[in-house]
Design a protein that fits this description.
Layout: H1 2-18, H2 25-40, H3 46-49, H4 57-67, H5 71-75, H6 77-100, H7 105-123, H8 129-132, H9 155-171, H10 174-184, H11 186-191, H12 196-222, H13 232-245, H14 250-267
Helix pairs in contact: 1-9, 1-12, 1-13, 1-14, 2-6, 2-7, 2-12, 6-12, 10-12, 13-14
């Protein structure tokens, strides 16, 4: 729920506060998840994970160098891995945003959805076997590290709280007010001196950054990931959370994430069983 709350608020930054109908969240989540998993899997488990084609020599050397670093640095590697994954996702968003953000409405949604599927296909392709393990996926991913001396169970909630707090600060800043102005009327916003493309690009990049952070959390929560985890269905689930919580509502997105998750896992499970009505 905490992980989906971060993605929902990030998507709401685009859809609800900036008025950009983007459906590429699953793609950016996959970037964050794969990079976090690749960087955090211990060296001793690499042969058991990359058992088909082996791991790329340069990647093994990188990971061996990471494990040779001081223990205090190794303790924060999971968080650094999430940040690296988020920065890579933000970089892709900046490049993709140059042509894509000139589109509007349904065309933007189709373009970002197509990007998400392309990323998923690349990660599962045979050419990426030595890096992402192709269609076999990655497993033996370490679970959440402890933070502030709390049990590891609380780590995703702490990271989610910090991420959402940063997004709220952004929304209440001058940039956030510019995003809202673009959502209400692009022509009026431009007449007031707001650079439309630059602000749309920033909104797209920041949303992708925090979406990738959530992807890293998801990789550590599931302990194993594969490309089909980040299918179109995941994007639709996130969109459902945003719509139920209300466009332009951070509180609604957070509450909706918990409600939708509880409904899927507990409250509505009886729909999986045969229903008998009137005999």
């Amino acid at each position: 729920s905490a992980i989906l709350a971060v993605v929902a608020v990030s998507m709401n930054l685009l859809n609800g506060f900036t008025g950009l109908f983007s459906l590429g969240q699953a793609g950016f989540m996959s970037i964050g998840a794969y990079i976090t998993a690749i960087l955090t899997i211990p060296v001793k488990n690499l042969d058991g994970v990359y058992y088909m084609s082996g791991i790329a020599p340069w990647l093994r050397a990188l990971k061996e160098g990471m494990e040779a670093s001081p223990s205090w640095l190794q303790a924060i590697y999971p968080f650094l891995a999430m940040i690296v994954g988020a920065l890579v996702a933000a970089g892709f968003a900046a490049l993709i945003g140059i042509p894509v953000l000139r589109l509007k409405s349904d065309y933007l949604a189709i373009a970002t959805l197509g990007f998400s599927e392309i990323i998923r296909a690349i990660f599962s392709s045979p050419q990426m076997d030595q890096i992402t393990n192709g269609s076999y996926g990655l497993n033996k991913v370490p679970t959440f590290p402890s933070v502030f001396g709390l049990p590891s169970l609380f780590t995703p909630f702490v990271v989610a709280a910090v991420s959402i707090a940063l997004l709220v600060l952004l929304i209440n800043s001058t940039y956030g007010r510019a995003f809202k102005a673009i959502r209400e009327d692009e022509i009026a916003a431009e007449a007031m001196g707001i650079n439309l493309f630059r602000h749309k690009e920033w909104s797209f990049v920041i949303s992708s950054f925090f979406t990738a952070v959530a992807g890293g959390l998801l990789a550590m929560f599931m302990r194993s990931i594969e490309a089909k985890t980040f299918s179109i269905t995941l994007t639709y689930d996130i969109l459902l959370i945003v719509v139920i919580g209300g466009l332009g509502s951070v509180t609604g997105s957070v509450l909706s994430a918990f409600i939708v998750t509880a409904s899927k896992e507990w409250w509505l499970r009886f729909f999986d069983q045969p229903l008998i009505i009137g005999g």
